[in-house]
Sequence to fold (464 residues):
Amino acid sequence: MIIGLFPIAARSPISAFMTQTLHIVGGGMAGSEAAWQAANMGVSVVIHEMRPKVETFAHRTGHLAEMVCSNSFRSDDHEQNAVGLLHWEMRAANGLIMAMADKHRLPAGGALAVDRDPFAESVTETLMSHPNVSVEYGEITDLPAEGHWIFATGPLTSTALGAAIQAETGADRLAFFDAIAPIVYADSIDMDIAWLQSRYDKGETEEEQKAYLNCPMNKEQYEAFIDALLSADKTEFHEGETAGYFDGCLPIEVMAERGRETLRHGPMKPVGLTNAHNPDDKAYAVVQLRRDNALGTLLNIVGFQTKMKYGAQTEVFRMIPGLENANFARLGGIHRNTFINSPTLLDDQMRLKSRPNIRFAGQVTGVEGYVESAAMGLLAGRLAAAEILGNELDTAPLNTAMGALVHHITGGAEAKTFQPMNVNFGLFQPVDGLKGGRRGRKDRYKAYTDRAKAEWQTWLDKQS
Ligand SMILES: Cc1cc2nc3c(=O)[nH]c(=O)nc-3n(C[C@H](O)[C@H](O)[C@H](O)COP(=O)(O)OP(=O)(O)OC[C@H]3O[C@@H](n4cnc5c(N)ncnc54)[C@H](O)[C@@H]3O)c2cc1C
Fold:
């Protein structure tokens, strides 16, 4: 069923069918998992997938759940790693993506690496042979006015659909590139060097006047930092990605290439700031970090989007005074990536507030990665199916990995600076009575994962 059939209100026989059917646009990680979950709950599902009729620059096949780049689902450690915990939660929920990843697992130490072609073939065959699932090949280019829909069209959402989403949400609520500045765990910053202050102490409240964390550099440190930026390993754009991003958000290393002083007059300008530890010391340059979540556990390095390789990023960013021991919740990047401003557009059921018959799931909601995308598909599939069956389901509990992630994208994240996010422990609410900092980390992470598993199991049990 393709474009032009919608809205379908006037077509009464189909209309009755449509109200009971869940339509999922995009058969990637999220769409495949959503279909599996809803179909297993007894709901009839149609997956609309544009490939192989319409290609993207990154996919190679017409299979569902194709892994477009690396073959890794990252850490499988469900006690000490947030993505490993997400694996655990999806396995407990009978997730298809995890089951097929386990079936086609390749040796990779503590990581879950996957044999990509058999994996995608197995996901495709399993869904195709499910009695409640059918697949229709073709591009959807509109947001339908009726029926139950999940849009899981991913980072390479087709151009026509992107335009339809923009028409519904407003142009500034749909991004075509991410421009991710690195995100640092607040408790790994050396506060004997850094201090809190907004430029010129701007703001009405103390909170606003101290909204930024500042890391000062002297001339020598700045020059060494510029040298490191210029010589660092960088990644190139994939063929087919355009460089249209250059207008709005230059990578810092490109700024440095334009002149050694450019950063000092841009994101690293030292004006309007007084070093709280040494007021007479005038910094030559200042790196600023800003709160990235409501909990204040994560901070992003302002204006530091970058195409440096991950290894180079940690090395270069740890040269910043105060960040010598920084732990990164995520590293920076710039990619072709279509995503909506979920914190303003979606409710906690992942429904578009302006059109509640439509849910979004997967990377297009502003999560990042195969696992996170599949997880958001799992949740959206269950929420949508429950709604169709007339038993609305609470969204995932806040203290689970699933809940922390969905809460972040639908409310916890700063809407103005919203950029795609991996799951990480910085999204979790603290557990009372545990030691902060590096030393307490192992116990803290174990406490998060124990709490999450118990709450996730309770949430699942309620549905059985
Ligand atoms: C170049 C590139 C490299 C990446 N590398 C990695 C990596 O190494 N590791 C990692 O974890 N993540 C990586 N990602 C992110 C990765 O794509 C996502 O994590 C994951 O695939 C997202 O799952 P999804 O279901 O949201 O989207 P996808 O898996 O992309 O699925 C979306 C599906 O929707 C279909 N579609 C799009 N528009 C329409 C339409 N209008 N009508 C019908 N169907 C449509 C697409 O054909 C696609 O099959 C990469 C992304 C890109 C673009």
In short: The chain has 14 helices and 17 strands. The chain has two domains: 22-173+340-462, 180-335.
